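Lecture notes, unit on binding sites. The following record was shown on slide 14. It pairs a sequence with S-adenosylmethionine.
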Amino acid sequence: MSLASGGKGTIGAKALIPGETRPDEDEREWLPVGHRSRSPVLTDAHGRPITYLRVSLTDRCNMQCLYCVPPGPRSYAPRSDHLTNAELVRVIQAAAAVGFSKIRLTGGEPTLRTGLIDLVRAITVIPGVDYVTMSTNGVLLPRLAAPLRAAGLSRVNISIDTLSPEKMHRLTGGSLRQVWAGIEAAAANGLHPVRLNTVVLRGMNDDEVPDFAALTFRFPWEVRFIEMMPMTGMLDLARRGVVSSAEVRSRIEAVYGPLEPLPELPGNPARSYRIPGASGQLGFISSITEPFCARCNRMRLTASGQLHLCLLHDDEVDMRTAVRAGATQPELEELIRLAVWRKPWGHGLAHGVVPTLRQMAELGG
Ligand code: SAM
């Protein structure tokens, strides 16, 4: 499949029919056979069920997106700080035992992780883990999509911020040809439905919004437009660059007419729409202008083993020290319950409270 051709996808064994509402990963009936969660549901102090763990496999990346990583030389955690695969599996086992049923592997760039395929295989068989997905820039998927699928990975979100090769190089240091090959590899290997993540930045790629939306006529994919978040080192760019979802939507409607709203799915931060007649769908993630904190169901684990309780706060709980001190599985579970209980309510961006501890590349989006 090339940039100029279309394709029809499948989800598990089910054919994806153009016009059909695609399922979200939270819809249990779509789960891979034998993977339905039996774990209890854990709620935080605000009554939110917390079931989704985003696991950063590395803080290293093979791209340098200018909204994600500050310019200049990068500093990384020493590799000895990173949880080993065995340590990571122990933490995820404890998380699954207390109620985390969906795991997303992210980074940095998760496909750079040594032993990735074995790690995915080990995570997918953990009791209570229903779904393992990945956020990636796609560059290594031509080689990895088939073994990842075989290891049990369900689907991928692929970041792509422009359809211009020259602009791709300027925005990310990467190659559009390689990213597109990764998207094709994901689609060809059943990592469906493919989702494309596009951070919209004023004066950089906002002119391409209708072109991204047009992809949904040609492919049964979901194109998601993301508002840029003001992470550490990114405040100025976020101030200048953020384009609201409302504006992105109206730019699409100016070309294609009113969008058709699709049902809201639990735990999905995106508001979903379809251009009438398109086979794919559009999603809008409005972290800044319409925060979805009341529906937040997620926590993050850094590659160095810190449970990060909210993307836009600095609160963390140290799992690595506990694992390396020989904590038992019940002790790890108790630590995770405590972390969930301490999860902050909402973010303070409107009052000027911004995170300072970690870059997005450490947290994985
Ligand atoms: N390397 C992988 C990738 O490219 O998807 C995973 C890590 S990346 C940090 C995960 C997601 O975070 C990507 O979709 C990226 O576009 C998004 N992201 C990074 N910085 C962001 C920011 N400041 N605001 C909003 N999204 C951001």
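Take-home: Residues 61, 67-68, 106-107, 109, 135-137, 159, 197, 199, 226, 228-229, 231, 234, 360-361, 364-365 surround S-adenosylmethionine (CB under 6 Å).
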